Amino acid sequence: xxxxxxxxxxxxxxxxxxxxxxxxxxxxxxxxxxxxxxxxxxxxxxxxxxxxxxxxxxxxxxxxxxxxxxxxxxxxxxxxxxxxxxxxxxxxxxxxxxxxxxxxxxxxxxxxxxxxxxxx
Length: 120
Hints:
The protein has helices spanning 11-24, 43-51, 70-83, 91-105, 109-119; strands spanning 30-34, 56-60. The chain is mainly alpha-helical.
């Protein structure tokens, strides 16, 4: 599992993320399933996608279908595990707790996928 944290999310940040994905997983083809956020369709990334079509493919979920989006299950799991009924005194405390959660679940990606797919 690969993830990044940024202060803002725009097409340039998404392009950088895709570049990092291609660099991290140079063998085979990475298929990403995405929602229809504007940054996922930005003109800025189209040339990159054409250049890396053998390494990277984006598949888009139907509009307004959060029930099909696996990451929605991840957010729910994170909320229940990290911030449910917990008072955090700072944004940094929340950030640290989220990072710990992500680091922990990244150790066993197959179990994470199994858990999230079963919830669909």
